[in-house]
Amino acid sequence: MNKVVQDQPLAERMRPQTLDQVVGQKHLLGENKPLRRVLEGGHLHSMIFWGPPGTGKTTLARMLADHGAAELLTISAVTSGVQDIRKAISYASEVKESGGQVLLFVDEVHRFNKAQQDAFLPHIENGVIVFVGATTENPSFELNNALLSRTRVYLLKPITEKENAALIQHALADVEKGLGWLKLEIEVEAIELLAASAQGDARRALGYLETVADIAASDCQVGGTVTLDQMRQVITERTVRFDKQGDHFYDQISALHKSIRGSNPDAAAYWLGRMIEGGCDPHYLLRRLVRIASEDVGNADPRALTITLDAWNSFDRLGSPEGDLAITHAAIYLAVCAKSNAVYRAHKLARQAVNEFPDQPVPLHIRNAPTKLSKAMGHGKGYRYAHDETNTFSAGQSYFPEPMGEPEYYTPSENGLEKKIGDKMKWLRSLNRGQA
Fold first, then answer.
1. In which element (H, E) is residue 102 found?
2. Are residues 338 and 416 in contact, defined by beta-carbon separation less than 8 angstroms?
């Protein structure tokens, strides 16, 4: 095997050169699918590739340049600045003047700030460059609207375990670019483990495979079989995909919240565990659980808020990892207890009313009257002390500014303790109506 080629990472050697070699992305590259039509037609347009690492963004950019007879120019937002952008645009302008075309591939484009992103706009519009950006983050949040309006976004999906397994088999068999010259065999279960451990990343799958090959064989010793146990020793720990500020963060916290709201303690424990293992700040998770205790449980089970705050206190006393159990304790309780969003709805309605009636004076009868002057002005006059009344309730007494009438924001659900609260409120409101 050529040493120059051998010194290249396996993922680079196995990079697809044709559409038929591409693994995954059938929704974009299948028969008559949008990106395949662009590639086969060679009519390039500016675009954004959005997807997880190792899903083919760079490979597709290279293919676009080849199929469109364009010169590929690559810059990375991680290491480049405005000066690099200017140099790239200057070079592209020269190529354009000579009758050529430059496809400018910008890796990690979301790392460019607004000014840097804006620098591309006029050159996309006048056709100096075909702009192709790659990002792992949601373009709607990370890219300027002006840039998005001039590009088309293509979503790349994670490579499935089945697709990664096929890629691994192909790399094992390929003598010219892959590991075929090693005549290495890997048990089916070991390949399945490797494919699963790659977590949708083709580059990671081939990286794991290369590590396995380095351990299992050498240039002077070909052949052999890698067992499942040997594979487990190589892949000792799966890296939990987690971005403390990106889409994975918000997707996972959304999954946790919705699992609790949907009363699934198993899913709640899973997503919570994913975030803790991924390095999420436990206090962020606790703040979210406290919010859930009021938003999704409320008075259906008032103990939920107490248990969640107790979990917070326990974590602060114990720290991680011992205190992590208390967080899981709270999450599971929130998932299994009765649910109601009545408090949340009342909160929103009351806030809306505050915006509608921001400056209404407090009715005189419920104003404080600590001085002779305030009493002389009528503060507190006509106020009925509830503890002196039948059922400890001043039926018919209003507590709202007169223009607001008697709105009802809190409507208890039929779940948990709120059913009893609802029954009492119906009775109290009927007493009010009887005094109206």
1. strand 102-107
2. yes
Domains and CATH numbers, the chain: 25-155 (3.40.50.300), 161-234 (1.10.8.60), 247-336 (1.20.272.10), 360-435 (1.10.3710)
CB of 49 within 8 A of CB of 57?
yes
Spans in the chain with pLDDT lower than 70: 1-7, 216-223, 236-247, 435-436
The span from the CA of 436 to the CA of 434, in Å, is: 6
What gap in Å lies between CA 60 and CA 56, rounded to an integer?
6
Interval 108-162: pLDDT, tens: 999 999 989 999 999 999 999 999 999 988 898 889 999 999 999 999 999 999 9
Closest C-alpha to 29, from 1, 53, 63, 4? 63
And the tokens for 350? 């009351």
E-strand stretches of 112-262:
129-135, 152-155, 185-186, 225-226
Which of 335, 306, 311 lies closest to 323 in space, CA to CA?
Answer: 311
